[in-house]
Design brief:
- By secondary structure, the protein is mainly alpha-helical.
- The longest helix has 29 residues.
- It starts with 6 loop residues before the first helix and ends with a strand.
- The relative contact order is 0.13.
Length: 291
């Protein structure tokens, strides 16, 4: 007797074999796709990194500090916390501005302003320690950060215990000049440029009577407001033609507003220590471009 399968059995075997091959091929394709997909928390981290041109890394400040006096601990912790917040905000801006501006956009709009903010915050830390102990030196070298195109952000600035805005009790940004500011700290400092000049509301004229105990600190911060405008106008002149339509707002006016808000707040705090703290000064932080 012939062992050949009947014709209908041969057709059934062929159909079943073909279906099995299709299923097996699908499994191989699915397996390959899953093998290339990160899982768990690692996948989320990779997705965050790849969504931006990189992350910002900054030198660790906490590990470079000497023993912190008990009287300064709260203020130091608050400013260490602020350093972390500044890095997080810079990384958020970095992710949101992918593809914007020219080759110097990240340096001008993100790393430059971040360095300035960190320098002020680190200076406040040094001043706080120096009130009751030896003021640490060399911390200013830790202000500059870098763009790391292959790794996660390094916040490395201690955990801190405070959540305040980091204004502290001292002048924070003293420049050694205790002279009085001129009557109009926002008057187009820095001269005209091809791009225009930056004008800011006058703060000095909006202040109440300044107590004698606060005068030196208030004058110092009014002078700092002038310096900030001059620096912004210098940057404005040097970056003519750079970036897109929002470059000036993102790289100059935005960071200037942040600096002015902190400085104005320090003025209000200084007055409020021995008198009624003035309110509404925060509305004077924003500046405009006059062409």
């Amino acid at each position: 007797m012939s062992r050949a399968l009947p014709k209908y059995d041969r057709r059934r075997v062929a159909v079943i074999g073909g279906a099995a091959a299709v299923v097996l091929s699908g499994a191989v394709v699915a397996g390959s796709a899953l093998a290339g997909t990160p899982g768990g928390n690692g996948g989320a981290a990779n997705a965050r990194t790849l969504a931006a041109p990189g992350t910002i890394s900054c030198p660790d400040v906490a590990s470079r500090l000497p023993a912190v006096p008990a009287s300064a601990k709260t203020e130091v912790d608050r400013n260490l916390n602020l350093l972390q917040t500044q890095i997080q905000e810079a990384n958020t801006r970095l992710a949101k501005t992918v593809g914007q501006g020219g080759p110097d956009f990240v340096n001008n709009a993100i790393l430059g302003p971040l360095k300035d903010k960190r320098a002020s915050t680190i200076d406040r830390i040094a001043i706080a320690i120096g009130r009751t102990s030896t003021k640490p030196t060399g911390l200013d070298t830790l202000a500059a950060c870098t763009l790391n195109t292959g790794g996660a952000a390094d916040t490395g600035n201690g955990t801190g215990n405070g959540s305040g805005a980091g204004n502290g009790n001292g002048n924070g940004n003293g420049n050694g000049n205790n002279g009085q500011a001129s009557g109009n700290d926002g008057a187009q400092a820095g001269g005209a440029t091809a791009a225009g000049t930056i004008s800011c509301p006058d703060v000095a004229s909006r202040l109440p009577a300044v107590p004698a105990s606060a005068k030196a600190e208030v004058d110092r911060n009014l002078t700092l407001l002038q310096t900030q405008i001059q620096e912004a106008n210098t940057r404005l002149a040097r970056t003519v033609g750079q970036g897109g339509p929002d470059f000036v707002n993102n790289a100059i006016l935005g960071p200037l507003k942040g600096k002015r808000a902190s400085t104005i707040d320090r003025i209000a705090i200084a007055i409020g220590r021995t008198s009624t703290r003035p309110t509404g000064l925060d509305t004077l932080a924003a500046c405009t471009l006059t062409k």
